Amino acid sequence: MFDRSDLTSQATRKLDSFISAIRQRVSNIISVIGHTDSLGTDPYNDNLSERRANRVRDYLLNSGIPGREISVKAMGESSPIADNDTRGGRAKNRRVVIEAQ
To answer: From CA 37, how far away is CA 87, in angstroms rounded?
Structure first.
Protein backbone atom coordinates (compact mmCIF):
# COMPACT_ATOMS: atom_id res chain seq x y z
CA MET A 1 0.00 0.00 0.00
CA PHE A 2 1.40 3.35 -1.03
CA ASP A 3 2.48 5.61 1.83
CA ARG A 4 1.11 3.21 4.46
CA SER A 5 2.52 1.10 7.23
CA ASP A 6 -0.70 -0.66 8.26
CA LEU A 7 -0.86 -4.45 8.30
CA THR A 8 -3.40 -5.98 5.92
CA SER A 9 -5.40 -9.05 6.89
CA GLN A 10 -3.28 -11.06 4.43
CA ALA A 11 -0.12 -9.78 6.13
CA THR A 12 -1.37 -10.71 9.60
CA ARG A 13 -2.22 -14.24 8.40
CA LYS A 14 1.32 -14.61 7.05
CA LEU A 15 2.77 -13.24 10.28
CA ASP A 16 0.67 -15.62 12.37
CA SER A 17 1.97 -18.54 10.30
CA PHE A 18 5.56 -17.29 10.73
CA ILE A 19 5.07 -16.90 14.49
CA SER A 20 3.70 -20.43 14.77
CA ALA A 21 6.75 -21.82 12.95
CA ILE A 22 9.29 -19.70 14.84
CA ARG A 23 7.93 -20.76 18.24
CA GLN A 24 8.96 -24.33 17.46
CA ARG A 25 12.61 -23.31 17.31
CA VAL A 26 14.87 -23.16 20.36
CA SER A 27 16.83 -20.05 19.44
CA ASN A 28 15.76 -17.27 17.13
CA ILE A 29 17.34 -14.21 15.61
CA ILE A 30 14.74 -12.36 13.58
CA SER A 31 15.56 -9.50 11.22
CA VAL A 32 12.66 -7.30 10.13
CA ILE A 33 13.61 -5.23 7.07
CA GLY A 34 11.38 -2.46 5.70
CA HIS A 35 11.42 -1.30 2.07
CA THR A 36 9.69 1.31 -0.11
CA ASP A 37 9.31 2.14 -3.77
CA SER A 38 11.19 5.07 -5.29
CA LEU A 39 8.41 7.65 -4.98
CA GLY A 40 9.21 10.29 -2.37
CA THR A 41 12.44 11.70 -1.00
CA ASP A 42 15.18 9.51 0.44
CA PRO A 43 14.60 10.75 4.02
CA TYR A 44 10.85 10.20 3.72
CA ASN A 45 11.29 6.69 2.31
CA ASP A 46 13.82 5.82 5.01
CA ASN A 47 11.28 6.87 7.64
CA LEU A 48 8.42 5.03 5.93
CA SER A 49 10.42 1.82 5.63
CA GLU A 50 11.29 2.08 9.32
CA ARG A 51 7.62 2.56 10.22
CA ARG A 52 6.70 -0.51 8.19
CA ALA A 53 9.37 -2.63 9.85
CA ASN A 54 8.42 -1.35 13.31
CA ARG A 55 4.76 -2.21 12.68
CA VAL A 56 5.77 -5.81 12.00
CA ARG A 57 8.15 -5.82 15.00
CA ASP A 58 5.30 -4.58 17.22
CA TYR A 59 3.04 -7.36 15.93
CA LEU A 60 5.72 -9.94 16.73
CA LEU A 61 6.23 -8.46 20.21
CA ASN A 62 2.48 -8.44 20.89
CA SER A 63 2.41 -12.09 19.83
CA GLY A 64 4.96 -13.03 22.47
CA ILE A 65 8.20 -13.01 20.49
CA PRO A 66 10.90 -11.59 22.83
CA GLY A 67 12.28 -8.21 21.80
CA ARG A 68 15.86 -9.39 22.29
CA GLU A 69 15.33 -11.74 19.33
CA ILE A 70 14.19 -9.00 16.90
CA SER A 71 16.25 -6.46 14.98
CA VAL A 72 14.77 -3.80 12.69
CA LYS A 73 16.39 -2.33 9.61
CA ALA A 74 15.08 0.37 7.27
CA MET A 75 16.27 0.12 3.67
CA GLY A 76 14.13 2.87 2.14
CA GLU A 77 14.18 2.54 -1.63
CA SER A 78 17.72 1.14 -1.82
CA SER A 79 16.90 -2.53 -2.52
CA PRO A 80 14.13 -2.85 -5.09
CA ILE A 81 13.03 -6.30 -6.22
CA ALA A 82 11.06 -4.96 -9.20
CA ASP A 83 11.00 -2.07 -11.66
CA ASN A 84 10.02 1.22 -10.03
CA ASP A 85 8.85 2.56 -13.41
CA THR A 86 5.60 0.59 -13.29
CA ARG A 87 2.73 0.60 -10.79
CA GLY A 88 3.01 -3.16 -10.32
CA GLY A 89 6.75 -2.97 -9.79
CA ARG A 90 6.41 -0.20 -7.21
CA ALA A 91 3.78 -2.25 -5.36
CA LYS A 92 6.22 -5.18 -5.12
CA ASN A 93 8.92 -2.89 -3.73
CA ARG A 94 6.67 -1.73 -0.87
CA ARG A 95 7.29 -4.60 1.52
CA VAL A 96 8.69 -5.91 4.77
CA VAL A 97 11.02 -8.90 4.70
CA ILE A 98 11.42 -11.14 7.75
CA GLU A 99 14.52 -13.29 8.04
CA ALA A 100 14.91 -15.88 10.80
CA GLN A 101 18.21 -17.50 11.70
So the answer is: 10
In the chain the domains, ranked by start, together with CATH numbers, are 9-100 (3.30.1330.60)
Distance, first Cα to last Cα, the chain:
28
Task: Say which amino acid occupies 2.
Answer: F
Q: Say if CB 79 and CB 38 are below 8 A apart.
A: no
Contact 54, 72 (CB under 8 A): yes
pLDDT tens, position by position, 58-95:
999 999 999 999 999 999 999 999 999 999 999 999 99
Residue 44 pLDDT > 80, yes or no?
Answer: yes
How far is residue 79's CA from residue 15's CA, in Å, rounded to a whole number?
22
Neighbours of 54 (CB within 10 A): 17
Q: Are strands 96-100 and 30-34 parallel, antiparallel or unpaired?
A: antiparallel
Report pTM: 0.84
**Rounded Cα gap, residues 82 and 58, in angstroms:** 27
